[in-house]
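Sequence design from tokenized structure. All designs in this work follow the same two-part layout: the structure record, then the generated sequence. An example of the structure record is given first.
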């Protein structure tokens, strides 16, 4: 069992930055690939980025590539999302999620394959 708690959301102007954090409680954090997803009002939840369990492999949605950076600290059981050059279309509730994987470099882009989810944190980008 893994409990995930996101923090760091808020209101920011377009072009600004925010850093989201996700703290994991439970065992074997390093056994999980960690992903970030987001859901805008009236839209389906979508993949944003993922970090493999080792931290050595990352993947980004095209919409955030070059602006967002995911990182993890397995010693502190945390994963972070640095968001730069924010746009109004980045406005959404952001969720971190954990997927138990075996190969160190494994990850998934599919939300249905994730085992645990946080409660979400709201990010609002004003124009």
């Amino acid at each position: 069992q893994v409990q995930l708690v996101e923090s760091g959301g808020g209101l920011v102007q377009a072009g600004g930055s925010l850093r989201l954090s996700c703290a994991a409680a439970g065992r074997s954090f390093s056994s999980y690939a960690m992903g970030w997803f987001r859901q805008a009002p009236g839209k389906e939840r979508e993949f944003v980025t993922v970090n493999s369990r080792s931290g050595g492999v990352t993947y980004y949605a095209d919409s955030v590539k070059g602006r967002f950076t995911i990182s993890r600290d397995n010693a502190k059981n945390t994963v972070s999302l640095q968001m730069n050059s924010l746009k109004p279309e980045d406005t959404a509730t952001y969720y971190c999620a954990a997927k138990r994987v075996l190969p160190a470099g494994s990850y998934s882009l599919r939300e249905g394959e994730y085992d645990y989810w946080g409660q979400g944190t709201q990010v609002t980008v004003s124009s």
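Residues 38 and 94 are 4 Å apart (CA to CA). We note this feature because it recurs in several other targets discussed in the main text.
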